[in-house]
Amino acid sequence: MAKSKAQLLLHLVILLLLFMSVYPLAILLFGFTKDGLEFQYNQFAPSLPLWFSNLEPAWERIGRPVWNTVFVAGLITVGGVFLSSLGGFVFARMRFYGKEVLFYFIIALMMVPGILGLIPWYLLIRDLGLVNSLWGLILPGIFGAPIFGIFLLRGFFASIPEELFEAGRLDGCGNFRLYYRIAVPVSLSILATLAVMQVMNVWNDLVGPSIILTDREIFTIAVALRDFSAELSTKGAETNYPLLFSAYVISSVPLILLFAFASKYYVEGLTSSGIKL
C-alpha cells in the first residue's frame, strides 16, 4: 500500500514537471496563430480561426539573421568537425612523444569556463580587425570547436578494430588516407552527432555575437530575437506577442528540420560514444 502511494506521488510529480515543460511551448504555438486583439483576451488557450498573418512581418525582420546564422553555423560546423576528427584520429591512432600529456591539456581546457576567455577573445578579434564581421565568429568558432570534439572522437576512433588499419597499410595507405578512407566512413554517426551539437551551439549563442556585432544586417538569430523582443517590449500593454511568437517559431524551424533528418545518426552517435568512451 505504501509502495503504491509512493508510485502515485512520483507519477504526479512527473506529470507536473511534464506540464511545466510543455505548457510554455503550447502557449507559444497557440499564441503565434492569433492576432493581437485575440491574444489580449485569450492568452493561454487555443482559439479559432487560426491567424498566420504574423509570419510574413516576422520573417521580414529575422529572415536575414536566419541566413546569417546558417552561414556561420555551416562554416563553423564543417571546419570544426574536420579539425575535431583529424585531431581525434591523431590522438587515437598515431604515436608521438608527449601525446597523453597534450591530450590531458586539451581536456583541461574543457574545465575552464568560457567567460574567463571572453576579454582575451574580444581583444584578439579587435586586433585582427574582425569586429562587426561574421568572420569574427567563424574563425574562433572553427578553431575552438575541436576542444570537445577531440575528446569525443578520440575514444571512438580508438575503438575501431586495428585490423582495418593494418589492411589499409598493406594496401599502401598513409596516415591521411587511413583517416579519410577508413576512420571517417565508419564514424559517420558520431560525426553527425558532433555536427548537430555544433549547429545548436552556434544557433543559441548570444554572448559572442552581442559583443562584436553592431550592424543589424549581420546580426545572428539570437541577437536579432533579443533586439526584436526588446523593441516590442517597450510598447507595454500593446506589445504584439503573436508577432514575437511567430519570430520564435520561424527561428526554431531550421533546428527542428535538422534534428528530424539527423535524429537517427544523433542517437546512434550518442549511444556508441557512451559505450566506447
From TrEMBL:
CDD domains referenced in this protein's UniProt entry, alphabetically: TM_PBP2
A Pfam family: BPD_transp_1
Which controlled-vocabulary keywords does the entry list?
Cell membrane, Membrane, Sugar transport, Transmembrane, Transmembrane helix, Transport
Residues forming the ABC transmembrane type-1 domain are 66-262
Question: What membrane topology does this protein have?
Answer: Multi-pass membrane protein
Instruction: Enumerate the transmembrane spans.
Output: 12-32, 66-89, 101-123, 135-157, 178-200, 245-267
Q: Where does it live in the cell?
A: Cell membrane
Per its UniProt record, what PROSITE patterns does this chain match? ABC_TM1 (PS50928)
Q: Which PANTHER family match?
A: ABC TRANSPORTER PERMEASE PROTEIN MG189-RELATED, ABC TRANSPORTER PERMEASE PROTEIN MG189-RELATED-RELATED
**Similarity comment: family membership:** Belongs to the binding-protein-dependent transport system permease family.
Q: What name is this protein filed under?
A: Multiple sugar transport system permease protein
Q: Which organism is it from?
A: Cohnella phaseoli
